[in-house]
Amino acid sequence: MDPIIRLEGVTKVYRRGAIEVPVLSRLDLEVRAGEFLALMGPSGSGKSTILNLVSGIDLPTEGRVVVAGIDLGDLDGSALASFRSRHIGFIFQSYNLIPVLTAFQNVELPLLLTGLTRKERREHVQAALEVVGLRDRMDHFPRQLSGGEEQRTAVARAVVTDPTLLVADEPTGDLDAGSASDVLGLLQRLHLEFGKTIVMVTHDPHAAERADRILHLEKGVLIESAERNRT
Amino acid sequence: MRFFPFILRNALRSKRRTILTVLSIVVSMFLYCTIRTVITSFDASLETADAARLITRRSTSLTFFLPLSYKDRLAQIPGVSAVAYGVWFGGIYIDERNFFAQYAIDADEYVPMYSEYLITPEEREAFRRERTACIIGEKLVEKYGFKTGDAITLRGTIFPGNWDLTVRGIARPRTKNLDTNFLLMRWDLVNERMGRFNQVGWYVVKLSDPARAGEVARTIDRAFANSPAETKTETEKAFQLGFLSMLGNIRAVVFAIGSAIVIAILLVSMNTMMMAARERTREVAVLKALGFTDRTVLGMILAESLLISLTGGVLGAGIARVVYDASGFTAGGFFPSFFVTGGTIARALGIAAAMGLLSGAIPAADAFRLRVVDALRHAG
Predict the structure, then answer these.
(1) How close, in Å, is residue A231 to chain B by CA atoms?
(2) Count of alpha carbons within 13 Å of A145, Cβ hemisphere only?
(3) B380, A44: Cβ pair inside 8 Å?
């Protein structure tokens, strides 16, 4: 199967004034369509940078990043925005829901960028909230939801446009064990039932256990890759 | 339009702050409409001036009289078709607060010269027949409930004593901007009670050809040069402008006050919008991560700022229109037609829109430039 994500010789260097901070060094990586990949490693190892690069919110200093057959280096700012709206679903550690919008309106946000009618948007949002088990909470504001419910709403927002790729940055980092397990179960379901490709950054080995493959990074270099068998 | 609910939610995110910002714009636009209406009311009063009428008065000051004997000499000057005269009576009706203009005029020529007012032939004839008759403007009917046949007593200030008059006619305006906050009484009544002093305040000279106004005015003033009572003749519009200039450079003052108000409120509004946008840096980054383009985010912040300022503008201008129309405000009769025009409202909304765009410009530009990756501050 063709890889949905391909990183070729990717180097990323951040500049802070006169100081250059190398984060990734000549990294090669391929992720297959429908794969659930966990990225692990200590802080500063470059795992979140990989998420930023594959989701098109940052560009490599050197090398190529190709996602869904699109070389992201060829895209300008608005084309990258369009790429993100079509291909990427984000799940953040701290949920990042808009506090003045209800759960329904938060999930609807990415759909505002599509040509869908109001009725179609409503149907999509209700379906996404159904998947995450929050249809009955759609009129609640984020402050009226628990942390786990907020993150499930964020998952609904990430999948509502049926993106090619879900990127999750420490999705359970702010959750208690029970809620974390719910969210991980949800991601696993999206992967297994709906065939979603997921790239997840995590510090938590238990969370990483849910993935098909676990990559360990250290100082911008892949040092270990563990493939898990699923039936 | 699909973003409007989101923009509205953001605008109402901090209700107290938004309400206070809107209120500050409401107040500033109300004040702007008020001072702008002062200017348009002046202009409206000038527009009613008839180009075919000249005003001849004492060259030294309007407060000095001219002899009655000038009337016949004026009538003989080529280009003059009719001559009327009047004097400022300056009486008090019951109380000094009840201010309205009172003119003592000649019974025959004055009224026909002002055809912009509708006065019936019967009313005009009644005014000519009865020495204590008076004609009142329509505004006085609204204000005091006068009707034909009512008695009005004025207490003279320039011409002392009590003056008992009877309403014999009502002057109705043929156009909207005309002042009807006045009373016309007979000059010969005043002349008789003042011991036949035979003096008038000014002459109104009707021209046979308005194009010859300058030439006729010069001829008049030359005719009375080197006399004990030299004249100054000018068009009615110039006369009114000269009268208004006694109030100083109102336009400049009004412009300065208006500008100061707008700039002060603009700074308040800019500060509010920048604070609001700063609080949302991370949310802007999330929107961009979801696929909102830089331009969309910029447009949304500008639209929010525009929404707040236009709400204030619409309310401020609307309240000014309703309040001044409903109250019939005239500043004690100084502005006969204090009416907030459509042009003033359009200017107020234009200023409010400009304020909105300006105050939203900096936060919108910041949001436009914001790098998602910096704002989200990924670690790892």
Answers:
(1) 32
(2) 29
(3) yes
Output the DSSP codes for B300-352.
HHHHHHHHHHHHHHHHHHHHHHHHHHHHT--TTTTSTT----HHHHHHHHHHH
Radius of gyration of chain B (CA): 30
Q: Which of A51, A84, A96 sits opposite B291 (nearest CB)?
A: A84
Q: Residue B375's closest chain A neighbor by CA? A: A57
CA B209 to chain centre: 30
Helix/strand/coil for A26: strand
What b/e sequence results for A42-59 when a residue is b if at least 16 CB atoms lie within 10 Å of its CB, and e otherwise? eebbbbbbbbbbbbbbbb
pLDDT in tens, A19-32: 888 899 899 999 99
Sheet architecture: strand order including A221-227: A88-91, A165-169, A197-201, A36-40, A213-218, A221-227
Q: Do the chains contact at B380 and A48, CB–CB below 8 Å?
A: yes
pLDDT tens sequence across B153-205: 999 999 999 999 999 999 998 877 778 889 999 999 999 999 888 999 999 99
Give the global pTM: 0.73
The residues facing A31 across adjacent strands are A5
Q: Which two tokens stand for residue B288?
A: 């961009």
Taking contacts as CB-CB distances below 8 angstroms, the residues of chain A near B373 are: 52, 57-58
Q: Is the reported ipTM for this assembly greater than 0.95? A: no
Residues of B in contact with A45 (CB under 8 A): 380
The string of pLDDT tens digits covering residues A41-58 is: 988 888 889 999 999 999
- Beta-strand relationship, B161-173 and B133-137: parallel
